[in-house]
Amino acid sequence: MRRIGTQAFGIRLPIINRGDNLADIVVDSLMAAVETQSLHLKPADVVGITEALLAKAQGNFATIDAIGEDIRQKFPDGVVGLVFPIFSRNRFLNILKGIARGAKKVYVLLQYPHDEVGNPLMRLEDSDKLFDTGKNFFPGDEFREIAGNFTHPFTSIDYISLYQNVGSNVEVHVSNDPRRILELTKHVLVGEIHCRMRTKERLQQAGAESVYTLSDILSKPINGSGFNPDFGVLGSNLSTEEELKLFPRDSEAFVNLVQTKIAARCGIAPQVMVYGDGAFKDPQAGIWELADPVVSPGYTRGLEGRPNEIKIKYVAENLFKGLSGEEKTVAISEMIREKRKDAEKYSINEGTTPRNYTDLLGSLCDLISGSGDKGTPVVLIQGYFDDYSCD
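Above: the chain sequence. Below: its structure as tokens.
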């Protein structure tokens, strides 16, 4: 029996600049790491490349002015009702600046007690103060007074004030009903990430005259700007005070190219994926990490689907509770081998929670690479597809 299971290695790269040939740099760095560390690539290995690296090499950046111009084109009357954006300086503040720059008036509707990814707008224990008012739609200043001038526990930011102070044409309100924005304007921009299509549908059914989502903003280039045809400004991040890095384009073509180049170098074609935020939640603050629209915008075909795994601790304590030691180990190993031949036989009672391979692997990559100064934006994962029966 193999004594080591899944391993993940952060691969260091040189600093990437706009216009660099990222595929060649990734392959060169990976091959150098494999050779110097005496590793051996296998077809079932996974190579993850962070989305920020690909977007930077593509030069997929956009200015606040480009966002403002797109807003002017989509909202010709100059009034925007912005519904349920997340609370973030890096993820949303520059987007809001662009919206305010392109509009005459911006009504921002925030939700409580937290945004869609768990950033709090108030203390949960103060929720009753709002319910006791008998209202569910508050001007920002009134909400802050009731909620006690709350600041984010990690950033110490008062997001109502932060967003309100973006410009004199910005007015913040708070409600959990997105349809309340229609009392202020019939022209709406949905700021949500994962729930955007459901909110858009509710607004349309309630009588909105036009509804866009953040995936519609910069879905095409504006005056030569970067863009993303699938996600617009979703997945973007702060680059400079006047510029955002957008989510990368053509990720699927990129991963297939990297896979082909690795195969040409060593005869092995591992799976390759582009990854962004991991899909995990902070257990103390309750903040969900996934502020990108997807964990992986592009991956090779071998990463499609979900695991169909046996929960070893369940079968060990139930189906083979009368066995012990090597006898139990052999029995479980044989069961897993049989599962390979007839997967459906073991897919109900003994299975683990089904999640996409790309979400699981992307989360692992995100944890390995980190968001600080490790300098390892490429991750090599080995042994992920092995199981307990592998020799």
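Residues 61-245 form one domain.
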